[in-house]
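Researcher: Quick one. three chains, 1529 residues in total.
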Amino acid sequence: MFLINCPYCGERDQSEFSNGGEAHVKRPENPDSISDKEWAEYVFVRSNPKGIFYERWVHSHGCRKWFNAVRNTSTDEILKIYKLDEKPPSLDEFKHTLQTPSGEPELGSGNFTVKK
Amino acid sequence: MSAINNTKSFHLISSQKISFTFDGKKYTGFKGDTVASALLRNNIKLIGRSFKYHRPRGIYTCGIEEPNALIQILSEHSEPNTRATVKRIYEGMVIVSQNRWPSLKMDIGSINNLLSPIFSAGFYYKTFMGPKGFWKKVYEPIIRRTAGLGKPPKDFRSKSVHHYHNVDIVIVGGGLNGLIAAKKLINTDYDVLLIEQDSFLGGVLNNSKKIKDIDGQENVEWLKNTEDLIRKSKNIKILKDTLVTTYNFKDHLIAIEDKAVESAPTSYKSELALHKIRTKHTILANGHIERFISFRNNDLPGVMLASSFEKYIHRYGVVPDSNPIIFTNNSSTFSLLKSLVDLGCKPLAYIDYRNNSSIEKNILDFLKNNNIQTYTSSEIEGCDGTNILKEVSIRDDKKNIIKIKTSMLCVSGGINPDVHLFTQSKGLIKWDSKYLTFKPDKPFQNTITLGSASGNFNYQSLNEEVNDKLSFLKGAKEIKIKLNLNTADDLNIREIWETKHEKETLWSKSFIDLQNDVTTKDLSQAVSEGFDRIEHLKRFTTNSMGTDQGKISSINSLGIVSKILNKNISDVGTTIYRPPYSPLSFSAIAGRNTYEFYDPKRKTAIHSWHIKNNAVFEDVGQWKRPWYFKLNQSETMHQAVQRESRQLRETAGILDGSTLGKIEVKGKDALEFMNLMYTNAFTKMKPMTSRYVLMLGEDGMVKDDGIVSKINDQHFIATTTTGGAPKVLGDMEEYAQTEWPHLKVYMNSITEQFSTFNISGPKSRAIMRKVFSEVDFSNEKFPFMTFNTFNYLDTKVRIMRASFTGELGYEIYVPPKYALELWEKIFRNGKNLGLIPYGTETMHLLRAEKGYVVVGQDTDGTVTPVDLNLNWMIGKKKKDFIGKRSLSRSDTSKKNRKQLVGIIPIDKNKNIEEGQHIVEIKSLPSNIKEPIEYLGHITSSYHSPALKHCIAMALVKGGNQLMGKKIFVSKSNSSETVESEIVNPVFLDPNNRRLLS
Amino acid sequence: MKKKYSIFNIIKNTLSKNENWQKMWRSPEPKKSYEVIIVGGGGHGLGTAYYLAKEHGIKNIAVIEKGWLGSGNTGRNTTIIRSNYLWNESAFLYDHSLKIWENLSSELNYNVMFSQRGVMNLAHNEHDIKEMRRRISANRLNGLDSRWIDTNEIKKLVPIMNTDNLRYPVLGAAFQPRGGVARHDAVAWGFAMRADEMGVDIIQNCEVKKIKTENGKVLGVETSKGFINSEKVGVVASGHTSVLAATAGIRLPLQSRPLQALVSEPIKPVINTVVMSNAVHAYVSQSDKGELVIGAGTDGYNSFTQRGGYDVIEETVRAIVELYPIFGKMKMLRQWGGIVDICPDASPIISKCDVKGLYFNCGWGTGGFKATPGSANVFAHTIANDKPHKINAAFSLDRFVTGRLVDEHGAAAVAH
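Model:
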């Protein structure tokens, strides 16, 4: 249960929010003009990175407002929160938090206890 | 040699006697005693039997780390596996020992000890494999019965509560370090919570004589003064009898408070409180845990950790044995030596694994001056005795075995910082080769460790450590504490994990996990079988998987394994420490969020009327909905539903539809938004009319239905299914905010703002006329699927002409405040016209006669509107709506998908069951081995009072092409089938004469 | 089989002080190249290697595991085994597995302690009843031992259950007597031992960092122990599968979520059946050791931390306390999390993909343990023949394009 800083209400327990999956996935403007495969990609496929993830949250037990967040899924640390109409921060801003190619950080993933 | 009281202990001053029962025998202890300290006072050392071999076990420690002394408390709903070393006694407490039969001294299960040589590591994996069926019927039941420790508890209804804290700093541990830290924070701007597991602050100051005096004051006096100072401060709160068990992400702690310490359970007080704490900084000053050493029979009652022995003397005022033997590999037992000698209890012998030259001079001098038999460079080879320690074997520096008779042996194998919480927080620990232990290294969260919890065992440097590590806190003053010590300057330790058996027999055992009966031999065997990863070893041998999670032994097992593998301990690593730190009561976790508060019961404004009129309710989500109304006690559900249905079609019925979701959609672009959300086309829809609507998922499957009423292009009201209401609103918000932010549209739930009544039946118009005399209900003025708002008393009601029964019907939306009054008014007016209340089951029957679908019953998330023959509801000219694109994929557009059809039995006396499947064979094998193909399944089935036979709806592969086909419907309890016919699902009034009348 | 286990063999070893046990598997260094590489040393992966060697004659195989064998979801689940799924495709797959379970101990000569004590799914409302009756009817036609039991029978099987005095009363249950639980680690160890005997290299502490491809074909894997060549790579890495797939440019319809479980302190036998309740989210069985093994829910966000929210634990425990009044006096001993990979239709993917020689076995979500041997068996077939077994044909990746999902969410929505 981490904390999420709702841009409209302030910092609240994560259990007050619902996650909306990957952010910045645009619904196709003309669904009829794309192939079945492209449509399936939109409906069913989302990125699932271990590490930096641009995602959506909604303060469902609060103001009901949607917003975006950048979170490190290998530690659950929230690195940035921004409103829907704000420009997404550049990935370079968070690159330093990635530890290994597969995203396994030394600290915070829960997979190691002893310092090497 | 027996136990004596230490009358100098603060614990025994002015304390009263308490009597309790253990295994049927009455004993006396002092108020504040734990079960263990009271039993030790009574010279009881045999407390229970071990998990696997049923070996006799006693009291090994004086706290939360206890692996052996687990008891069952009969006077508390038979609570099992309670630590005797933590649980305090009270008058009349009844406890029994565990895992023995018929008695503790004579336990049949101890035959396992005789067989123990074959119960080597992995025993169960390698045997009991045949003959077939024996595992389930023979082996497993026996294994399960002998395992399991305590007996199941009794029914219990907890009164535990939850408390919430939002603070700046939590100090875990009210011992010396915690108190110095708290003192530093007095009257700063930080909100501080100081949490102590004992009923007293002080830790080491109460538990030992390691510290002679502090700031020139007696320990007790300093503690009192310091506690007073803290209590008077404006910013620090103290929680005692509270144990932090869990350290979650973002400095979220769970702590459990015993609200009933030293008292019997009552019917009115909460016994536990669970604290949920969110903090900005966590200071872990939770100390250390002593570890043991493995030697032959190191599990015998009478073997105890040295610092625990010392704690019993000072904290509980009982010297468990007046002349014990001490075995150590480090300098920490010096204060125990001193404590014993102070009380005139001379240890029979002192065995130190360290060699003469590395033992501190003051310890050697002390031993010599007091004439205590001393063996250096020596070790305990093993212990002997039946049910209790009788004799120890010492292997001296010349490898000679010397036997000494004794009833207690105090052991210290070193000290581990208590890193459990630190690792739970995902901090990394590091091996300290000086102190031979893991200590905290890098924190992941805002964690600070202090004192022995941080691996600092030098008391004189504590003061500096606290000042240093807390210097970043604003307004915290420099603290100066002066300590006068009774200990060696620093912890000085020599590595030893186990001692060699002099004579190896099949039965000789050195334990590494006392509770789970894991021996050092099990470890080496597991390694030789290839389980050389510590997590594998844990799982293969069950090492450290007991209720104590190996608190006194897990580092020892790493030591032993590292020696076998010839690796560094830090390369062997540790297993992951799992929360909670100590077993956490289910009741406390649940708190008040269970029983009557498990989930809210949502009730409509008419609920009291329903109860008065013998409604039987069904749960629909959180709502309580009238399912049917009983005319009298003997009326069955079937009779009631048949009666309600028949009468509604003859006269009229009224349903409380308040639970249906209602969403108001407004805004400049509301029309465009609604066109995107629903399959239907709303553009040409006239204002003040309504429409039956469908909502799909992006996968093209039907997700919800309802009625949308258009007030104008900028204002709509949508109804949803009862269960679908939150999801539909959520989806609307999501699309409006994230996909189409350019649309000016706003929505809100108005479910609770309006009660809804559905009146239908041929007499409904007459009843409505009587109730709303000023409204013109004629077909011309008030046609089907139109609505309007009317004045009613000092409010407004909205009336819509709609129907889910196929009869003439109206829906009334009224503010809940007026609802019951209006409902009763309708009944007064409808009484002579035959108006009856009806429930959801009748509604379902009546709609089925008309072939209307219920989303969630006739659909299952795999059904498109086309499958339901609801093509007419799709706005084909619309460029887009949610799910539209999915309808043209190859599988969703194919011809022989499952389609909704009607089914009627050929023999009209036969009944068709819901959920049964449609097959093409007349009778099924009685024992089906090979899969039988089916065409589809029955989604709805009712006995139609109008048609006087069973009618059913089904989803059938290519069903639309199979009209008139004879098929067979399976039966749940027979291999017979019901011969039936596929028909159009509209069974009644296909031309809507009744509906439009 | 080189290592034969029996009571006689145990006694023999006892008499030689247990010093002559053989290693269950070797710890080889990876070779330069293999015929097949399996990424993921859990039960599914080790089983795949076992069946490739045993049934398809492929012996030159490496199983590459980042941690230690069974360190992922194999060692973290609540060990429930059943096959009473609604759709034919699922029922055939899971029952294929259940049938293998029934003989697995003797096949491997290693006791996986499959305990067929029965699994019941409780119904708490009319909607549950309708869904279960339909499922039971479908199960019966598929030859599965699934039946409806009323509250009297439930009380007989589980006397400690409170069926009527709770917020959502128990109205009946779907019961599968052949279902049960097994010892999860033993499955991985048993498969590993027998695969190793047939020559499979099991390489632990070796992390696959990249799946290397060229011109639509697999070349091998880049690992922490260097590049290993292979024309066939099977990825069975549960929560991490999509991370690995991404290194080969493949996007899978998977989301990785924390799933939590907990155990109580051990007590004498008190519940002899596996009881599952979806409506109040509480799964319970009692291990042979006496611990109550309790499954909690998934968190609603992607995470690879093997640590879920505390609120999820609380949600489950309050249901447990309400359903079983005696458990109010029980205590939670340990809680933990695993990372599960969830598919949009809650069914697995056992499939080829656009890259030749690259195969995926993933998307098992919260229920993969029960499928371990069956999934391994059909996945081995898929890899060996470069085409699916008829049992896993429906679980292909292209079902998301055609729309032919195997939607096991069933009628999730509560309506009317």
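The longest strand of chain C covers residues 331-342.
Researcher: Thanks, that's what I needed.
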